[in-house]
Amino acid sequence: MSHAYFITGTDTEIGKTHSAVRLIEHWRSQGLRVAAMKPVASGCSVGADGQLVNDDVERLIAASGQTDRDAMNPYRFAPPISPHLAARQAGVDIDLDLLRQRFAALQADADMVLVEGAGGWYAPLTDTLSMADLACALEIPVVLVVGLRLGCINHARLTAQAIRASGAPLAGWIANQPVADVACRDEVMATLKRTLDAPLWREIGFGG
Hints:
The protein is an alpha/beta fold and about 210 residues long. It has a domain at about 5-35 and about 95-205: P-loop containing nucleotide triphosphate hydrolases (Rossmann fold, 3-Layer(aba) Sandwich). The protein is built from eight helices and ten strands. Strands 2-7-1-8-9-10 form a six-stranded parallel beta sheet, with helices on both faces. The radius of gyration is 16 Å and the shape is globular.
């Protein structure tokens, strides 16, 4: 069975996909067969073939070399809103069992699988399930992407605590800087390293 990780973030728009792409590129450079999975994506546009296309999904496909979009991204919605709301508007029920099946199929043909959630740890997947429930159902460790900006220390500590409270192992964290300037950046990083109690996997600078 392949190794697998679930990547989540301290918020939306803090660089989960960017960080995922960097991990995929690193693993592929080591000769590993890597599969990415984006279970649910909202904010999609209509592609040339008339199908919904998501920019984050396309970046993951480009990095991993996968060709079956439906296998790695079972649910796509047009409105740029929370997936559970987008699914409700589309009249679609997001099926946790289907997501598990798609994940297992990817696992069977890869050395490494990286599953990217939408939004943060408790972002709703359905009216009764969250991204946390999905990660726990897949039974894989979590990598937390911390967006380096004002408020990130609190967000990171709360999210790390929530991950552990859910029963999921926190494998490590990635510091990604989505803004050009971060006040007291070195001190912020030192505080995160001291308080998160998990290994720092990598540090990605602005535009890096």
